[in-house]
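Can anyone check this?
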Amino acid sequence: MDHETTGVGAGVHATPACFIGGTAGIYWNNPDPDEGSLLDKGSFATWQATGISDSGGIVGSVFDPGPDSAAYWPDVTAAPVDIGSIVDGNGASYAQRINNRNPATEVIAAVGWNTDSIGVALLWECTGNCSDPLMNNWSFEILDQILSTNCTDWDLRRAYDVKDETRIIGWGRKFGQPNTENAVILVPLEFCCIADLDGNGTVSTNDLLILFANWGPCPVSHGPCCADLNSDGTVNTEDLLILQANWGPCGGESAGGGGGGSPSLQAAVQQLGFPSVAAHQAWLAQAGEMEAYVSTYVLITILQDQE
């Protein structure tokens, strides 16, 4: 293979050993670079491949004519499908990775971004005939717009990888932190719980600390904040009740609903003088905001002493 068509591998899938990459859209069916072949570029002048799935689907970008555009190849012999053309706006778009799903029976997902305005992270999804040039089975989402309503203070700029359950990694900025780039992991809501504010899979003292630190109205210019669990614009007693009701490992038995739940939380509310978590929740529901705030502070202190 000559110098002009040699590229750097950007994606791999496990069975069989296949590699793709390079600014010329190269596909290797074994590790020998001399055995590579070029993907079909369709009507475009140049093309790039960046991700490949176990079922053989490939994503990347096509260039010229027109803006750079995200592309999908159903397999190594197929022409590219210009999935970037369904994205609103006039900027360029780039697809980076694709998940390991079979489009005949499952939703395949690809992630990347476009450069319209400041750039936004994107998710493309398809089920069924994903090679249809009319893209009737394709859809796209701006990741900013499908975040949980209690975390809309994020500006997601890039998405770099997607796993089978549509777990996505990338980076973005929080409103109010324009000069800080934060790595992010996006997890579908069915795999997490609403009150797990630090994302560690358990609702615990640290989440209570985050809620306490954000107590009061959310900044007006930012919309709801992450500790505002009911998205009413204020972190208050109602959010504390939601957090307590979800106490413990995500997906496990919570602390709410009567006398059950986490032993640590039970012991803490008993030190506050309540016979059960449910009794404390009943008191919080009718307490004033300052009483609830003070009770939360004391509860945190007790829980930290237990650790």
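Reply from J.R.: I decoded it. The chain has two domains: 3-191, 202-306.
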